[in-house]
Each structure stands twice: as C-alpha cells, then as structure tokens.
Amino acid sequence: MSSASLENILRKYDGSPHNLLQILREVQEAEGWISPERVAELEQALAMPRSKIVGAASFYSFLHLEPVGHYRILFSDNITDRMLGNQALMEQLCNLLWVEPGKVSEDGLVSVTTTSCTGMCDQGPALLVNGRAITRVDAARIEALAERVRNQVPLAEWPAEWFQVDDNVRRRDILLDSQFEPGSALRALHARVETQGVQASNPRSWREGLPRGLVGPATMLDEVKHANLRGRGGAGFTTALKWEACRNAPLAPGQDRIVVCNADEGEPGTFKDRVLLTSHADMVFEGMTLAAYAVGARRGFLYLRGEYRYLLEHLEGVLARRRRDHLLGHNILGIPGADFDIRIHVGFGAYVCGEESALIESLEGKRGTPRNRPPFPVTNGYLDQPTIVNNVETFAATSLIALHGGEWYRNIGTAQSAGSKILSVSGDCERPGIYEFPFGVTVAEVLEACGARDTQAVQVSGPSGFTIAAHEFERKICFEDIPTAGAFMVFDKRRDMFEVARNFVHFFAHESCGFCTPCRVGTSLLRNLMDKLHNGQGSPYDFQEIERLNHILQAMSHCGLGHSACNPVLDTIEKFRPAYEARMVHRDFTPAFDLDRALSQARQMTGRDDEMAHFGTEHGDAR
Amino acid sequence: MSDTFTLDGREIPFEPGQTIMQAALAAGVYIPRLCYHPEFKPHGSCKLCTVKVNGRHTASCTYKAAPGLQVESNTEELNTERRTLVQMLFVEGNHFCPSCEKSGDCQLQATAYELGMMSPHFDHFFPDRPVDASHPDLLLEFNRCILCSLCVRASRDVDRKNVFALAGRGIHSHLIVNAASGRLADTNVALEDKAVQVCPVGVILKKRRGFAVPIGQRTYDAAPISGHVQGSASLTEE
Amino acid sequence: MDVVEKKKLKVATTSLAGCFGCHMSFLDIDERLFELVQRVEFDRSPLTDIKEVGPCDIGIIEGGLCNAENVHVLKEFRRQCKVLIAMGACAVNGGLPAQRNHLPLTDILSEVYLSSPGLGNGLIPNDPELPLPLNQVHPIHEVVKVDVFIPGCPPSGDAIWKVLTDLLSGQDPRLGHGLIHYD
Which pLDDT score, from 0 to 100, does residue A618 have? Predict the structure, then answer.
C-alpha cells in the first residue's frame, strides 16, 4: 500500500481514532492483513498507542495481525451447516489443497477454518472467501473452488452464481408485502404533524430536547407509543420508552443524540436482517430517519455485521440516492434544519457486539466489551452521548407505523405484541427462508408453512433462545409466550439434540468476549464437558458439573452472552434427557484424560510399540 | 444523617454515589475482590465481589448503594460460587505458588485461602504464556495473569502511558505491552509507575527482589485478607 | 482405651511425580505418630516398604502424574482405597513437574537426549522397563476421583495431622488460616 492510499483512507475517516476499526478494515481489504508497518504508521497518524490498536484489532475474528493466506476460506459452522454436511466438505477442501484446518499453507496461498454462523442457513452449507459469502456449497463446488485457488484465479473471476444470495421470502405480511416508496413515511408523518399545528416544522425541534408543546417529534413518539412497538432484537423493550428516555436525556455542550441500527445479526440461525437490508433498505433507513426526528438526532450508524460486508456497496448506494432525493443529509424534505445522516460501520466477526453497549464500544473503535450498566446508552451511549440502538426490523416497522399510524399497527398481532414478526426458518424443512407472520402465530403453524415433517424440536431465537419440544408446538411466537429475535431452526427426529446443544456451547465459548471470569472460563469449561460426553467419557459426575457451571454462568456473568450460554444445555437436559443419559456410559467418575493418547509423543520419540508403551490390558487399565 | 442499606443484617451507611463495595469497605466489611482497587474506576470483571441485592446477583463494585437495599454477601451460597470463580482463575493460568515470588503477598492466593479453596477442582488449561524478561529491572510473568486489567487502568489513567493493554478475545484474552517488539524493555515503563505497583498477583515483578521477605512475615501470613479490612471478620473461620 | 479395641484403619501412601517432601512433612507430625499408629496400620508406603497396595481405608498420594507408571499406581490406589487424599502441591495441581507443560514433550526429549552435549549416546532411552513420560503432567484429580486435598509445598505436619484427625473423627477436613497454604 502506498502512503498516499493510507492517507486517503485516513481522510475518508476524518483521521479519527474512533474510526480505527474501519481504517483497519480498509487497510486489510487492500493488503490482506494488517502488518506491523501499518500499525506503526497508524500509531503516528492517529496519535494512538500501539497497544490500543493491537488490543482492539485482536478482539475481532476477521481482523488479521498476521498473514492468513491469499485466500482465506471460512466454513460457516452453525448446526444447520453441520446438518448439511459442512464438516465433510471442509475435509474435502483441506485434502484437495493440502492444508491443515486453521493453518496457513506453507506457500502462504490459502487457509481454511470455521467461523460462527454466517447468516446463510436457508441456503447452506455456506462459506466465506476473503469475506465474501458462497452459498449452497457441495462437493462439486468444493472441487471447482480448490482448482481456482490452486491456479490463483482472482475472486472477481469466480462464477457469479457461487456468490448468489437469494432472499427466499416464503411468506409476506404487512412489512414485506408493503410496496414502500422511499420518502413516503417521512411525508406521511410530516402531513400528520401539519394537521395538528405549524410548530411541527420548527427546525429547532429536530435537534433540541422536547420543549413543551412541540408536537412534531411528539407526534412520531406518540404513534410509536400507540403502536406499542417493541424491540425486535429479542428482548422486546418498549421502543417509545427508549426513544423518550434518549430525547429527554440532557445534552452537554457539543453533544448530539445518536441513532444506531443494530445489523450485527450474529445469532446463529438468524438471517432476516440480511433480507431486509438487501430488499427493503429504504424502509430501514427511513425508519432510522424517523427515529432521529423523534429523539432529535443528527447522526446515525448502521452497524453491519462483517459477514454481510458484500451488502456495503449496495447500502452505500441507497444512502447516496436518499441524500440526492433529500431524504437524508441537510434539510430533509426541504425542512430547514432537518439534518440527519447515516454512516455504515462494518463489524468483524464478534457476536458479542450484538449486545448494545458492546456494539457502541466497537463503534468507538474499541474492543467489543459490554459496558457496566447503568448508565444506559439512552443517556450515555456513543462517545457518552444519548444513543438509541434498535434492531433493523424495528426501524422497518417504524416506517410502517409512520405510514399507517400506530392505531392500525397495534391491532395486528396480540395484546402485548403488536405487529408482525419476521422469522428466519432453517433446518429440517422443505422450504427454508423468510416467513413473516403476525405475532401470535403458533410454532405448529410455522412448521406447517415451511413443510417440516417429523419435527422433534425447534430452536427459537437461536442458541440463546429456547429449545421447543413437540408437546409445546401449540405455543405462540410473541412476547407473552416465546419471544424471539427471529431464528427458527427445525430439527426432525433423526437429529441428536445433545449434538445440537454441543454445537451451541462451542459457539458461546468461541464468542465469549473474555471480560468476566465466569463467562471467559466457564464457557470453555462447559465446552470441554460437552466434548467429554461426546467422546464417550461421560458419567453422572459430569452431569453435576454441567449443572454447576450453568448456575455460575447464569448467576455471575457480566452480560447476556454468559447468562444465556447455558440455555441450550438447560433446555435440552430438561426436554431431551435421554440424549444425555445415552452419554452417561460410565457409572463412576471417568476422566477426560486418555492414557493411550497421553503417551503418543513418547511413543513417537522412543519408537516403542511394546505392550507397556500402550499400557493396555496387562495392568488392568482398560477403560 | 446519611442513608443506609442492609448488608448481611448490618446497617451500612453510605454517601451518595458510593457503590456497595465502597460503602462496605468504609464500614469495615470485607467483600472478596480482585479487580477492584479503591484508587481506580470500578471495572466489574472478576465477579468475585458478586453479592445478592434484593435477591439478585450483581457485582458490588459497580452497583450503586441505595437506601433500604437488602444485600447478602457473606453467605455459604455466595462464598461457594466465589470459590468456583477462584478455581476457574487457577486452572485458566499457570499458578504454581511454591515458585512464585508473590506467594504470601498475592491477592489471588489470599482470596483462595479466605474462601477455603483446597483444590483447583477443574481440569487445567495449562496455557503456553512465555515470560518477558527483556526489561533490566522488571519481569513479566504472564502465566499468573488473571486479566483484572489494574495495570492497564493504572498505566492509562494514572501514568498516562498505555504501557499495558488487553488483547485477544475470550479464553485467549491476554496482556500485551506497548512496543512493536512486544517486549517490555522497548516500552517507556518506569519502576515508579503506578502500573508496576498494582498487580494483585505475580505478573509484574521487580527483578532481584524475589523471596526477600521470610515466610511468616509476608502480607497475608499473620492475618487473612479479610483481616486487612479494618474491623472485618474472616469469611471462613467461626 | 477403646481405640485399641477397635479395628485399626488401613492407610497406604505413595509418592508419584513428587520429591518425597510431603512424606518428610508427614513425619513432621513427630510424636503424634505414636497416637496415629494406635489408630491406623500402614499398608503400602515408604514407611513399610510394602510394594503393592491392598484394600485400604485411606490412600495418600504425593506427587502428580508424569509417566504411565504413575497413572497405573494411582488407579490401583483408587481401586483399593475408600478415601483418597491428594497430599501436596504436585498432587493437587501438578506442581513443579507441571511447569514443563507448555513445552511439547518431543522438544523436551530432543533437547535433553539429542541436542545437549555430553549426554548419553545421542539416543532417547527406549528400554521397555522404563515407563514412558506423558505428553503433559497432570494433577491426580484429572485422572481419578479424589476425596480430600491437602494443598502446600509441602503441607505442614500440622495441616496433615489436622486433615487426618478430622477424617478419623468422621468430620469434613478443614484447614483454617495458617494451615491452608499453597507454597
């Protein structure tokens, strides 16, 4: 990289240390990794200690401080990818390329390893090559891919259909069925405000607190309140309450209010935001603009998960068009002082950044560690400014509410859960994809719609959610019953629910941020215990140990990741106990330690192959 | 008259803005802790100081005291949970007390004694964490790091140097220093830095000072760590 | 005294990857040894020179596991003893021998037998009589269930005495301040 191009990158990001992660991303996209020389240059240019640059970069799976090969191939390793045979495919690729999983080939050409769910469960098995998603991978595709890697064919010349990502929308309701016209929601709100009083177009209302009687932003807040809109990220916090708290938070001189759209869709099995951003980006950005009007913000961020990096150019295009059409930028809709703009921040493979305070830390260019709360982001968020963080779907719903009114919206769904929910359906069913239903739909109805048969269980809301067994299929998807961020993974009777839970436990161990002791160590200990059972070394002792760790994780962890890391285990123990009992093959304590394996290096070095070198049956040590 | 909350049945007065930990310390009540240090902004990562506030688990070092709170700390349940956390720290790193210069003065060790930890219980991770002996006067023994980040905070907030930082994620989290070589000798660390003084365990050590104090006269030989809080009673002894 | 009337408890002790320091400390219970032998009789132990452990009430293990024979002896002890005690740092957490654990055993053996000058004939010993070293050194609870731990390097005679007398009187062993230590 020339120093000129580094300068360009720095200029693009205002030379600000808060934009460190985006600067690092662009450096890496140009050079494949972040070399010590670049770190040294950035240390100077950003006036930032190296320890902070390295500390932040090393937190993220997709930022590389060491070379990772000209081709970096990551297999998505969600349970749905496993069910579609990703392990055999990865083995096939490693064999074809003569590489060991997780290591860079000796010629520096390629590395192959796994990554957490990439959000392509409806068209898996999936992988990422240099950050770009390849879907529907099969043996033939692996063979062709290996050949292109070996011949060093540039990614741009690989077949376009490999990179094709389909929306797979199977059922549309109010949101996905709306023929949304960009700007229509803003105009509808504006019109609604004008019928109630001229003050609505008072430009001061855009950026200042809510003085009494100022009806413009209040109108938007009222509609969202009437609509009883609740956050779509899973927790279901009342959106209007969050926005009001942000609007009412005092601003220090020089501060702004901030609107953040959380598109760090990292929960395994969820991919609805991918589709919303692909085909309904205007609704999302318009919802953010409406929210900005409601809370009085002038700056917004879309935090886009690294796995969806391929959407960046498309989304930047939508933003540019909206600026051109006066739907974003200065004087929106020609209203003087109505200023709001959105920047896209690309993430780098860190699930914990879906937690709103970790996301804000990451936006600030730091390690994605969840903050201590209180204070909450609504008063002390991005750079200590009042900040709202909402899900992609929440903002899209906001546009609908502005268009049709809160009254209309609240009459859809159930008493406590207004509106519709977009589900990401994957796993054992005929028609995986996106299903939008009014809240209150039963699990059975969704299963029927997606063509699932002989279903044993559904994982609703991803690993951190709920394992729903067959006797519960009449339960409803809504905040009163089963709340969800959108994942809906189907497992038929062939599946081993212990292995499902084990996959999820591996996920949490990989994604723990490492800040607090119980989660950092506990998720790894839990992973080791589940592996121990998997390896045929289980006894009732391990069962007690699992329960002990579950308790510590739930009671003592710093954030929701640790609290929910044991959910899949607790649920499957309760509902699929035989799957665990089948693993209790020993009556008494049996160690994970394996004597024969523990002698492998000594045998190799001494060349011994006698009976004692295997320490087998002679001494009665057969396990 | 200041407000009070209840800690293990005792009325604890507090000033506005104080955390449960701060008020407890001021009242002479020991709550186990490793990442909390009175001179630094609470961090809330080790979770040793977890108490139950109105029945819910929370870290007492970050939780603001409020009138009428019912706080449990010195209970069998919480001390058992804390013991598990200490065991996690022991198996996560390589903690061999017999060969550690900090033995007898180490807060991890003293806290484990206080909680009656007889064994590390879990299988050890035995991580590979090479020591950094590059500096002429200081040794960095990463095997003993518990990621409390006190040195990070001290270097950043007091020394204004950022000599130390945390890197990596999850179980691979680790301490780094601010030098391209990765060596402490190539940083601007100084012996009088606050960051060099605050390590609760045996990571940041002054060279040629090891084992200077005879067994029996070290910090926690005479009295357990709870006894170092004025007026506090031990957790484990009746 | 009714102690004499009672059947004596059988106790076995051994040192695996340890230095016998804990056994020395055991002897530091001094004159209390007389009281002890009123109540127990020793099976396999360096004190008796009995080589194979028989059925026992209490087994005391010093040292961790660094080779295959250690594992074998430990499993024998576990099989034969009702209560198994890990005595000392090495048994409890691997101790000093475990400080090799961050090095691959292959590197250690090469360094010692192949690249160091003046040692042997440049061959790694491969006599079938020799127990093979394990890839890593392990504390004993990672291989068998352990009932009681006495930490310390070594634990003091007083600590050992406290644990044994607690056990003999049917209590859960506890070590208070001053008796519990890891160094």
Answer: 43
- For the residues of A129-147, what is the DSSP string, one character each? ETTEEE-S--HHHHHHHHH
CB contact (8 A) between residue C180 and residue B118: yes
Same domain, B69 and B104: no
Residues B68 and B125 in one domain: no
What is the DSSP code string of A470-528? GGGTT-BBSTTSB--SSEEEEEETTS-HHHHHHHHHHHHHHH--S-SHHHHHHHHHHHH
* Fold assignment, A498-581: de novo design (two linked rop proteins) (1.20.1440)
CATH class of domain segment(s) A73-164 = alpha beta
Domain membership flag for residue B117? yes
CA B59 to chain centre: 14
- Choose which CATH entry (2.40.70.10, 3.10.350.10, 3.90.190.20, 3.40.50.11540) describes domain A184-410: 3.40.50.11540
- Which residues in chain C are closer than 8 Å to B121, comparing Cβ atoms? 141
In a domain, B218, yes or no: no
**pLDDT digit string, tens, across residues A97-139:** 999 999 999 999 999 999 999 999 999 999 999 999 999 999 9
**Band (A619; pLDDT cuts 50, 70, 90):** very low
Model confidence, pTM: 0.95
In terms of residues, how long is chain B?
238
Do residues B69 and B125 both lie within one domain?
Answer: no
- Please judge whether A516 and B162 are an interchain contact, meaning their C-beta atoms are less than 8 angstroms apart: no
| Subunit contact C145:A599, Cβ cutoff 8 A | no
CATH number for the region A420-495 comes to 3.10.20.600
Structural domains of chain C, ranges and CATH numbers in brackets: 2-100+135-168 (3.40.50.700)
Give the tens place of pLDDT for each residue, A552-600.
Answer: 999 999 999 999 999 999 999 999 999 999 999 999 999 999 999 999 9
Measured CA to CA, the distance from residue C60 to residue B81 in angstroms comes to 28
Q: Which residues are within 8 A (CB) of B205 and not within 5 positions of it... i.e. 6 or more apart?
A: B101, B102, B138, B139, B140, B141
All structural domains of chain A with their residue ranges = 3-57, 73-164, 184-410, 420-495, 498-581, 595-623
Counted domains in chain B:
2
Kindly tell me if the per-residue pLDDT of C174 is higher than 60: yes
Alpha-carbon torsion, ordered A234, A239, A241, A244, to 10 deg: 140
Lateral strand order in the sheet of A341-346: A341-346, A297-304, A257-263, A387-391
B55 shares a domain with B9 = yes
What is the extent of the structural domain holding B47? 3-74
Identity of residue B116: G
Q: Which chains neighbour A (Cβ–Cβ under 8 Å, 3 or more pairs)?
A: B, C
Using the predicted structure, report yes or no on whether residue A200 has a pLDDT greater than 50. Answer: no
Tell me which residues of chain B have a pLDDT lower than 50: 237-238
CATH number, domain of B26, equals 3.10.20.740
CA neighbor of A161 nearest in space, from A133, A187, A125:
A133
Percentage helix, strand, coil for chain A under 3-state DSSP, each rounded to 5: 50, 15, 35
- Select from C71, C104, C105 the Cβ nearest to the Cβ of A595: C71
Is there a domain that residue B225 lies in?
A: no
Q: Please tell me the distance in Å from B218's CA to the nearest CA on chain A.
A: 27
Interface test with C, best of B96, B201, B213 (most C CBs within 10 A): B96
* CA pair distance A247, A208, nearest whole angstrom: 8
